[in-house]
Structure formats: C-alpha cells, structure tokens
Amino acid sequence: MTVSRAPSGHHGAVARRKFRKTNTDRCVADLVAAIGADRVRADGASRLLASTDASIFVGGHAGPVCFPESTAQVQACVRVAAAHRRPVVARGAGSGLTGGAAPLGSAVVVSTTRMNQILEVDVDNRVAWVEPGVINLDLSNHLEDLGLHFAPDPSSQQVCTIGGNVANNSGGPHCLAYGVTSAHVLAIEVVLSDGEVVMLGGLDAEPGGYDLRGAFVGSEGMLGIATRVAVRLTRNPRSIRTLLLSFGDVESAAETVGAVIASGLVPAAIEMMDKRCVAAVEDFVHAGYPRDAEAVLLVEVDGLPGGVELQAQRVEEIANRFGADVRVASDPEERALWWKGRKSAFGAIARIKPDYYLHDTVVPRSKLVEVLRSIYEIIDRHGLLVLNVFHAGDGNLHPIIAYDSREPGVSEKVREAGREIIEVSLAAGGVLSGEHGIGVEKRDFMPLMFSDSDLDHQARLRAAFDELCVMNPGKVLPSPHSCSDIASLNDAGEDLWG
Amino acid sequence: MDLGLGRAELDACVTCALCLPHCPTYRVTGFDTHSPRGRIALMRAVQDQGAPLTTEIVESFDTCVQCRGCETACPSGVPFGRLMESTRERMVEAGYKPPVRIRAALRVLDHHKALQAGSSVLSLAQRLHLTPSSLSVPKRLPLRRPAMQKSGDDVHLFTGCVMDAWQRDVHVAVKQVIETCGFGVAPTGPGTACCGALHSHAGLGDAARTQARQVIAALDDDRPVLVDSAGCGAAMKDYGRLVGSSEAVAFSERVFDVHEWAADHIDGLPSVEPLDLRVAVQDPCHLRHVQKSHMSVRTVLTPFVRELVELDDDGLCCGAGGAYSVLQPELASSIRDRKTAAITNVSPDLVVSANPGCSLHLQQAGHEVLHPMELVARALRGVQAD
Lengths: 498, 386
Fold this sequence. Notes:
The complex is a heterodimer of chains A (498) and B (386). With 498 residues, chain A is an alpha+beta fold. Chain A contains 16 helices and 18 strands. Among the domains of chain A are: 118-235, 2-Layer Sandwich (Uridine Diphospho-n-acetylenolpyruvylglucosamine Reductase, domain 3), CATH 3.30.465.10; 239-343, 2-Layer Sandwich (Alpha-Beta Plaits); 353-427, Alpha-Beta Plaits (2-Layer Sandwich), CATH 3.30.70. Chain A is globular, with a radius of gyration of 23 Å. Chain B is built from 22 helices and eight strands. In chain B, β7, α21 (356-363) and β8 (369-370) form a beta-alpha-beta unit. Chain B has three domains: 7-93, Alpha-helical ferredoxin (Fumarate Reductase Iron-sulfur Protein, Chain B, domain 2, Orthogonal Bundle); 104-262, no CATH class; 265-385, Rossmann fold (3-Layer(aba) Sandwich), CATH 3.40.50. In chain B, strands 2-1-3-4 form a four-stranded parallel beta sheet. Chains A and B meet through α2, α4 and α9 of A and α3, α4 and α20 of B.
C-alpha cells in the first residue's frame, strides 16, 4: 500500500525539499530502483525518527530508511548500501534502551516493521519460523490457543520485535526459570554485509560446526541482519500462582530473594520494585500495589497444580520470616494487572521527571543488599532521584535515574552517578549488562570490564562476519577496538530539513 | 512554529514506545512517522527546534485517526488527543486547511434542516441509482425518518446531526429502552444541531466552540444528557476543557453515554427471552479509550443476547475516525482489514458498535452492524409481542 504522500491538493502551502543531486539522492534512487518507492523514506521526518530509540542517546544520524518485505529486499538494501559505501543499521520497533538501533554515520536504516509474518508453527516440534519484525507479544498471543508461548518476555514485549530480542539476547521476568533469548532461538537466516544469505544454527538437536547462532544472538546488529528466525516454543504452564510481597525495607526484600533461591526453589519470576517505582506504576494501572511498602516483590511460581501450591507456600513462609505482607493474585485479571504495572515501569517514569537514564548491571544475588545500598548512597550524594525496578531473581538491576535534562549541570551528575553505579556493580563481581545490550550508551564502559585482549578478540569475531565493519558500526566496541573510526561516524552528514 | 503545546504535556512522553502497537496507522504501515511517539517527536521538532512543516510532517499529523488508543497504552499519561487537536488547530490557522469538500460538509452539519433535507434528496437519488457507489454514506439512506415525540422531562436524548438524519432508528430504539426503564425522554432535536466533534478533530477549534456553546445553551437545565454516539459523547464530556467556562464544566458532568446510564438503571428493565444471537462487541475508540465506559455496553447487552464475544485486537481502532475514512481512504481501509480479520476470527452472527461512524465504516466492508441498544430494544419488543 502506498501512503507516502498525502492526497494531492490536501493542503495549500507545502514546503518542498530543494532538489540537489547529492550522494544521498543517488543512493536513494538506487534503493528505490531495488525495492520500490513505497518502501524507501528519505525525508527529514522519517530520518529524524529513525535516528533514535527509547534511550537518551541523541547523537544518531539516519540516512534513507528502508522498509523491505522479504529477505531478497533486505539483500538488495545491503548491496545498494555497500555500493555507496554506506553503513547499514537494522531497526525493529526502536524500543531499545542503549542506542543500539541509533544509526551513526548517515547509515542506510533497514526497518523490519513490514517483515512481520509468522511463517510457520510446528506444534509437534514446538518450533515457529518467524520474520524479525514480529512483535514478541503478538507471537505469544498467536500461539495461545495452541497452549504455547515464546518464553522471553521483556517488559517491552508488547512492542519489541523478535529481531530486536535476537540482537540484544533479551531477557524478561520469566527468564529466571526459562532462560534468555539465546536458549529459545534455534536457527537464524542472516543477510551478511556483502549481501550473502547464510543460515546459522539449525533445527537438529546438535547442528554441526561452531555455534555461530550463539555468536549471532546478542551481537547487536553488528554481524548481519536476521531475516527469518526459528524460535523454540514453550508450553504454557498448567498452573500459575502469583504472589505480591510487601516489605518495610528494601534490604528485607533483597534478603528474601536470596533465601528463596537458596532454599532450592526456582520461581518463574522474582521482580522487585521500590517505593517510588510502585507509586509511579500504581498511578497508571491502579492494580492495588501497596503504596506504603518500601519495596515489593512480585513472585510467580508455575508448573503442575500440586507442586505450584507447595512452592507458593514455601515462598510465603520464607517471606514471612523477613516480615513481608503476602497477597496472592485472586484471578487471572489481577495477575495481569500486577504484571502490567511491572512491565510499564520505565514508561511511567515521566510521571516523576521528563528524562530517565537507566543501567542494566547484573550482580551476584548474595551482593544484592550491599549493591542496592551503594546505589542509594551514590544517588543521594549527587542529589539525584532513583527508582529501582529489576529482575531480582537474576540479580539484574535496573536503577532508573529520573531527572530533567534542562536543569543546568544535572546531565553531567546523572552520567557520573551512572558510572559509579557500574563501578560498584563490577566491583561486586557483576557484569555491565544483563539484557539491554551495550549499544552506544555503554560502549565506553566496556574497558571497565574487558581487557584489551578480550576486546580485540571480540573485534576479530565481528570482522570474521563483516570485514568492512559496515553493519551497525560504532557500537559495543570502543575505539580503538572498533574497526571503524567512531569519531568520523559522529559527523552529522546532510541537514535533515535541507 | 508554535503549535500551542504545553511543556508538561510534551515532556510527559519519555519515548518508551509502548504506544506503537496500539496505533492503527503504525500497525498497518510500520512507519515511525505514523506512530504516536513519532508524531510527538515531530511536534517537538516543529515547536522547539524550528523544523519546517514539510509535506511529510504534515502527512504524519494528517494521518492520525485521533482514536486515542495510545492514551490508554501510555504509562505516563500523555494527553495525545489534546496535543493533536492543538497541532491541527494551529496548522489550520497557518493556512493548512482541510479540503474544501470537508469544510463544506462540516458546515452542513450545523444546519439541522438542511442536513435532513439533503439526506432525503440523497436517499431518493440512491433509489433512482443516481449516486456513485464510492460515496461514503449508508447504502440505503432512510427516505423518511420516524417522528420522535417527547415522552417526558427526566432525561435529554442528544440527537445530533448525521445520526439523526441517517440513523434515527437508533435514537428510536434508545428512547424505547430508556422509557422502559421508567423515564420520560426529551429528544434534543434541531436546537442542538451538532456536537462539534468533527470540527474539533479537523482543527476548526472556533467552529467547535461555537457548536459547544449552542448545545450548552439549548440544554440549560440540570437533567442528564444521554448520548448514543460515542464520538459525540466523548466530545461533549470535554466541553469543560474546550470552552473553559464553569458552565461548560458543569454541563460536561451531566453528559453520559447511554450505556453508562442504562447500566446504572438496568434493574428497571424486565427480564425477557434473550435474542438467539452470537454478538461481537466492537468498542468505538471514543467509548473505550476516551470515555472509558465500554464495559457498560457489555453490562447492558449481556441479559438480552445469547452470547457476547470479544475481539482479540485489544481495542485497536477500526479506521472510521469521523471524517477520516473520507480523508485517508487507503489507510482507513487497511486499518479496517485488521478489524475485519478480528471479527471473522470469532464468526459472530452480527457486530454491535456504539458509534455511527464505526457502524457505517464496518457496514461498507460487508459486516452486519447494529447499535447495542437496537438489540436491547428488539429483545424488549419480543416480550411485548408475546
């Protein structure tokens, strides 16, 4: 369907772009010739919007934005970009949190939003072939009648795409028991930077050769563009029990997490929210979250009915030991509302401040109490505001610093506090990112975690897939380990509204 | 260019993207320029960063259905409808006017008699096969409209413009149900020609305010004003903000969607044999996302039909959007295709919709669509016939 123009004569005065024969115009002309005019948008508005994701990173600069509908069209886009020496950046829903999809160097953006078909569902083998633009929750909703779902459930699952999940090796609350995206992707069809199409992994239990599928999942668009993905489907649990535990202090909540896991239980999910976060989400969902609690845990156990009953009792006993007030979701509607609150947390932050910066470090569960205490101390020292909402069972923290970037000097303080939070997490034996990826926002923190040799090996793996470093350049690997010159990528290129 | 957008309202968007899948235009095109987040970013670009109103930015704003599904999805409570109305109003002031035929059509809505007469002429023309099939009006307009007599002074029934001309049967059914509940009904008639919702959506703020003042003045008492068109009801509940007077605020508080009101008075309806139908409920966006009173349709309808079924599209817009299906026919039809798929999925005997625009738009795709109150009235009549 063509919707690239408003109906003619609709508006009297329209600003028209001055026609200049630039490199971009020639690149656009070739893209149009390759995949059709209604699948290429090179105007300032489209490029402006394709230059950002859901993070605070604003340095992106998009070239033409393409909306291919097949593997062959993705190939064509990549080949045209190569001919014009343009980098290529794949983009799903643009809900990423680290600038991973924010293009640098006026890249050709390949949007997957129109590659959104569920191609095949094999119920017997519990595998589905999907296109990368399929929305995570759409897939699970589609499978509901079959009693199946796609297990990774990022909080953004109502909008994020399977392609984005693959790129970031995304997690989600229920990955505590079920594992992250990598455990649920069997095979990936990939278009490489020279336009070649390869299949990584396979449906066999043990595909031969190196696990290139494993290398690709989490590679943040730097190895190629996924065009079809075979995902593993998980049976819906027969029985679910969801508990809401409220605590008088954050430490008791954190200690409960450790005690639950130490007892041998593996709940499907253990999520924590602190008081500020509860207030923000409760204003949106009105789910009955206790506003007076200092911290709440959302704990879900699932499986066969008898076992679920026992597990729920065990969790309740342990929580009681730490002084928790325990509620059990009375019906599926209440459960859904609690989860809606948890999964809307990032978006609800604007009820407090217009900007947020969040980290995604993972720390050992045994260090949760200590690291949380340090985070609150760092934030207080900088006079900032933090909301904590995170996958407690995995020790995957999401401290959200809420601020107003227009207040003078506050952005610098936010960045400094962010850095200190990372240092504290790493010093406690943690890692830089659990599930959001590194992108461009956390790129320059990589040396805090990896040695020069580590980074060089990562760069070499990348170069094995993409010798010219044209796939999403300037991400993850800091200079000088990145094969492109990051400084040159930051040049703004042509004016958007020229 | 100043779009008249408040700082706090713009700041409420943290670009989280949770609105995207709930936007009908983003769903069918996949373009960021067709998403609520994208449109807000472009409003910021125009108002704060001096971006020119390029063809594509104008198109981005013009293609918004104003369904406000994004507001329901937004955890931060961005008042998107207000942002878009203000944007359109400033664009009109700057010379980006809606097409002449639309402005002409909107002017007719203000003139009750002219609209009724015009509609009858059109109806006659239809019977003589003189109208093109592409015309966005019901396939068979009523030649005559049943008279509506006032039966009492307990409640006002807002009759409006197009609905009174094309779908008076709905008003008659609503009136019957309210009377069965034991209340006398005063149809508002020509004195309240049009609620102004369509003017407001098109950025014709002054015309909308004039309509609103007229309606408020004509219904100057303290009786409830019942509305059976979700779009009109949503607009009238917003008069307080639109007009800004305390009188308007007080008026808005008296406005109820007819289902909302009936759900509170359902005990007054007799228990009758339910109609043997499997009925799919299509929620008009301005009932679900704006008035948030869509559940009352289910409360009211449940006792009167064998089975109510829900669509699995999470309240996504059908693409009607007032004049939208005329202004953006291609998009409106692609959006409707999704709704059609959702309807087909549950294979109902018929569909109910509490908004005339949605009914018409879906009827044009071959669905049998009735107003929920028409079914209630039909069930009640069944009892009376026994």
